[in-house]
Amino acid sequence: VSDRHSKEPHLEEWEVFRQEKEGDAMKHGGSVMAPDAELAVHYARELYGRRQESIRLWVVRRADIHDLSDPDLLQPPLDRSFKKPGGYVMRDKLAAAREQSGASKPKGNAG
Amino acid sequence: MTGPAAELLPATRNALSLLLLAMADDEFVIGFSDSEWTGIAPMLEEDVAMSSIAQDELGHAQALYRLLAEVADDGRDADAIAYDRPPEGYYHARLLDHPRGDWATTIARRYLYDTADGIRLDALVDSSFAPLRELVAKIRREERYHLMHVSAWLERLASAGGGPRERLLDALERLAPDAATVLSPLPNDLSLVMAGIIDSSFDELDARWRAEVGRVFERLRLAMVLPVADPLTARTIHSDAFRWLHGEFTAVRREQPGATW
Lengths: 111, 261
Hints:
Chain A is α+β, with helices and mostly antiparallel strands. Chain A has helices at about 35-50, 70-75, 90-100, and strands at about 10-20, 25-35, 55-60. With about 260 residues, chain B is mainly α. The longest helix of chain B has about 30 residues, at about 130-160. The relative contact order of chain B is 0.15. Chains A and B meet through strand 2 and helix 1 of A and helix 2, helix 5 and helix 6 of B.
């Protein structure tokens, strides 16, 4: 406790997310270094908001983010193509089913 | 002359010109002085923040000089008013004659200035002079952030203990004799009150500022005596530090007459 002020200021990394307009998803903008949340928000504003490019910022302490990047969990080595719908040819089955039921092909981009 | 300024009595128009000149020169000098931190602030993020705040102030100065050019209507444009005066012709508060010094001095100077400037802007929110009222509405939105930023730093330096707090106390002690110069009464300021251009006399604004600053200083245990400023010298006698700064900010203009910003 006694000598904390004689040390170099303790800076942390903060991740900044920004929203460009109402309804948009928050997108990662970048990061800032700051000693605490209040200054982190000030600096986020300067770096990611001072040119009116954002309507909202979220500033999150990097240490509070739970990281998952384990390839065993995210990129399993065995063939997983059976988990993807791409392996099935649905078009002909759908056409046959529609013909049988008398329904027409739905409009729009279904399928 | 046309526009809203033409409807003012000559004495009121002169008083308004001095108010605009005081505000513009204050913003111009602190903006230019704080821009000296660009590249050398304590950390990269703060470098960007302080540079951006300094730029905001120069933007406010530019808008105020333009309005002054219309009101004064003496043939000078904003650039001529900003750059073509000798150092003695500037009308900024003597608080801003102090050099930026170390970081604690810059924060102390900016805190004393931003609080006083904030009180001054608040008093112009309902100004009867529409061009000033409209400009002040925009400037206040940016100054709100400036005050948040400098308050965050003042708090940190004051409560850090050790070296930072000592440096802050030292800076405040050096600046205190000139702190009240920003709200020192301007000549004929009562004509501005009577015309509804500003909501109160500068004596009243000074009292509001002391109350606000006093509360913060008490909380941070920064016992400070802020002497009343002499109105005759509050904005007229400038320092060697300012003469040096003046040489810097007029350098391009002198080398390249007619250069625009």
